Amino acid sequence: MQRTITRILLAVLGLAELAQGIWPTVTPMGFYQDFPGFRRGWVSMDGPFNEHLIRDFGGLSLALAAVLIGAAVIGTTAVARMVSVAALLFSVPHISYHLGHLGHYARTDQVLTVVALVLTVVVPLVTLLLPGRRKVVSSSATP
User: Is the keyword Transmembrane helix in the record (predicted)?
Assistant: First the structure.
């Protein structure tokens, strides 16, 4: 079984992915123009609108949210590690791209982007590296 902190981290990351997946799936143009909210427009600063790309990103985020939340509910260490690897396979290339394309953002947006994306790498790394919970062996034998 996995530790409670692992379940919490997987659930939190899953809920963040869920929010990030619902928005572009329901309203691709709204996501393009306003992500991460508050009229920041991080996606629109990076090039022209592409509905196919935005919807694919939303669907991928929803799929990742499902397996993250599912792993938190299932509770086994093997599943937690598997989904942590999946999250890293998504987040490492994602952060790598953005680290090389921060110049068109205001300084505050640069910092917020990096912090948010670093968390998408650090949380799965932590859940991947946390040891599973040890099984407690009962010392009393019952016939």
Answer: yes
